[in-house]
Amino acid sequence: MKTNIQEGIILIPDFSGFTEFVFNTKLYTGEYIVRQLLSTLIDVNDQYFEISEIEGDAILFYRYDENPSYQSISKMLWKMRSAFNRKIEELSKSLSTTIDLALKFIVHYGSFSQYNIGNFRKLYGKTIVEAHQLLKNGMAEKPSYALFSNSFLESSKNRESDFNKEPLRLPEVGVIHYFENVN
């Protein structure tokens, strides 16, 4: 049996506040807003990452890369977050509503494989499960952050990021960079 195991980056942008948003927004309006926000993230990505799947409020991006760049990824996250926030402002104004969503990112690195089922490409491996587990963390104090796992940090080059603030270091997990000041 031939397997396609490679090293790569897993990036998951995820909306904070999504469950409340779904319960408090009309179906058509909510679907329109989420579609616009997800499309914005995909457009800003500019094909740097491949898309494995989109589930609700999250995109599973991946990129095979034996030498990931911390600096390149942090720049991409800032671009995504800025575009996301601009789109929220635009939609809030045009729809005369408050959109209480924020963006968090999980950046992980490791080995994974890929297989096809019909027209779908699925990723498989411990790295994928770990990235999803990192999404469900109770470590972040604010909703808008980027969590870089230890495996990504150990594999990346260009350690300087575009985050001005000192990160929250979690020895067993990695680091969390906040997009705003934490009070």
TrEMBL record:
InterPro entries per record: Uncharacterised_Rv2561
Pfam family of the protein (one): DUF2652
Domain of life of the organism encoding this protein: Bacteria
Protein name: DUF2652 domain-containing protein
Species of origin: Chryseobacterium culicis
